[in-house]
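Quick one:
INPUT:
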């Protein structure tokens, strides 16, 4: 998987331990807790442990998204093979102050263009809670279409898919 991706305004690099402060901040935002869930990441050590767990798993890719000009971290794009999905799942999370600026779209669109170069990733999926209007809007803009609802644990999720 390509580790460094550059867009017009952004730099994307694979998540590393050095990103622990940012991940701790992101994972404790209202949006993360509401739509992804509280992971209990409230210390430097917990954030580093979370990052190491991610990086130690097969088929888990997290890109840090930074502003190209300042290298300021603003969000993440994920590409994960989840056990309950037939194909890889694309996801995204950004700090609230960077929402609505097109960064998530720009970064996710570029990740999709990179992963789709591999034949096994011609179909990409995504899931979101039904009330996550911002994510649903972005998934549609990225060309993913609602294909139904699935139950994952106690959560009903909306499933989106795209195929080239």
């Amino acid at each position: 998987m390509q580790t460094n991706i550059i867009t017009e305004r952004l730099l994307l690099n694979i998540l590393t331990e050095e990103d622990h402060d940012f991940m701790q901040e992101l994972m404790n935002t209202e949006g993360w807790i509401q739509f992804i869930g509280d992971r209990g990441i409230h210390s430097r050590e917990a954030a580093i442990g979370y990052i190491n767990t991610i990086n130690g798993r097969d088929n888990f890719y997290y890109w840090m998204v930074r502003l190209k000009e300042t290298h300021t971290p603003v969000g993440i794009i994920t590409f994960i093979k989840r056990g309950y999905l037939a194909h890889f799942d694309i996801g995204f999370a950004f700090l609230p102050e960077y929402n609505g600026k097109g960064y998530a779209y720009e970064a996710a669109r570029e990740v999709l263009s990179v992963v789709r170069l591999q034949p096994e990733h011609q179909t990409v999926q995504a899931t979101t809670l039904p009330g996550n209007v911002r994510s649903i809007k972005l998934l549609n803009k990225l060309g993913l279409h609602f294909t139904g609802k699935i139950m994952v644990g106690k959560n009903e999720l909306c499933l989106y898919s795209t195929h080239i």
